Amino acid sequence: MLRSYLGGRAVDLAGTVITSTNPARLDDVVAQVTLADAQTLVQAARSASRAQRAWADVPAPVRGQVIANIGALVEANAEALAQLVTREVGKPIAESRGEVQEIVDTCRFFLGEGRRLYGQTVPSEMPDKQLFTFREPVGVATIITAGNFPVAVPSWYLVPALLCGNAVVWKPALYSAACADAMYQLFVRGGLPDGVLNLVHADGDTTFAGLSQALDEGLVHKVGFTGSTAVGRAIGELCGRHLQNPCLELGGKNPMVVTEAADLDLAVEGALFAGFGTAGQRCTSLGTVIVHESVHDEFLTRFRAAVDSAAIGDPTRDVLYGPLLDEKFASSYEKALGWIGSAHRVDGPLGRISDTSPRNGFVGDPGTGLFYHPVIVDGVGPGDDLFQQETFGPIVGVTTYRTLEQAIELANAPGYGLSSAIYTTNPHDVFTFRRGISAGMVSVNNSTSGAEAHLPFGGNGRSGNGSRQSGMWVLDQFTRWQAVNWDYSGRLQKAQMEVAVVEADLAFRLP
């Protein structure tokens, strides 16, 4: 039975018990977890608040060594953690291993940032006076994460937040509770003092209620959230009432433009991975391929052939994708399939893979899990739900364009702004697309999915509020700038009022 942890100790609760199951084998119970109530989350924030000041007083390079310890522990347990990710959320084992490596990379990067939490010395306009800036931790951060990347994405928040001297209350997704428990155990054994990291398992409504109360009591100073746009809006509104700016990493409808100058085989390879990797359940998954009309038919023929020949099934084996993450995502994905209309063109079956709706070459037994057919829908366009809305499943739309300006307009039309891609051999196309696209991330001749630990990650519009994770840019989420004005002249000097003025001879003219 998994439990929440407050102040370094497991909490005995009398709440509802839920079960986390393997989505590839629904009869395989991975874990059971007791849900916390709203007051538990508030108590976790109090625990974090008590621990935070002492943790902030630990020199940043020493905090960096703790982060290095965590990375070493993750690396030493990498295969076990990857196998758990595959078992609990159904991610293909190769992807799970890559996800665990991302934690290691993140820790390695932020070890160095412990020695680079730089401030500045700023010249003063007054004599005998020095100006300085310092980074200060924000205080207590409440981090709420999704389960499609159950260990990598939490590390994007936890590692920099802890490095910067904050204490954390972490609320993971319930369908990845076992992965969260494993992450917590690895982190605290890296040398974190009790109370610096607290883990709370709770449902969405309870989390929102507890967060609201903790904000009211002044116990939370930063909120980080990865999840749906709808929930992100609600969290943004709640934080706004407390004059806080949360870190919101939300959904995406990520476009891929394929120009007439593209390497079509490379574009197909990118679309296959971007659209169907993790069964299309990434925030960076490909939403719509926007193909130049002159190469549409050839691209579509090759893309369909690649999808038809891809291995799908048992995630412990070498497959393109495995099951959907959880029953709730299966329900929402089936709703998205209902958006396919008479004007759209679809080849092949829709819905769940089963004995009555088989897939050739399926790896394993489709009857054991939440396995769904890959779907390509040609002919989508503005006004279609399928074009406008995130589907979060193995479905990719296709449309055409004539000019690159039209392609950019189509790419921006859904209002998301997370990831994007363009396939072309024309440099002019690349820079025209980069200037015009609203996305926070642009790939050239590469997939919409895939991020490196030292590059800023985040989106705009319906995809987020402009905050960025990863790399040095995330430090601005978990620190506040403090300005220091030190006057050692022995008298009061008034800025702007006593500045020495050097007069110019404005009457001078060149002969």
UniProtKB/TrEMBL annotation:
The keyword NAD applies. The keyword NAD applies. Its EC number is 1.2.1.3. One of its GO terms (molecular function) is aldehyde dehydrogenase (NAD+) activity. It is an enzyme of class 1 (oxidoreductase). Residues 18-484 form the Aldehyde dehydrogenase domain. The active site is at 249. Keywords: NAD, Oxidoreductase. Belongs to the aldehyde dehydrogenase family. Homotetramer. PANTHER family: ALPHA-AMINOADIPIC SEMIALDEHYDE DEHYDROGENASE. This is aldehyde dehydrogenase (NAD(+)). It comes from Rhizocola hellebori.
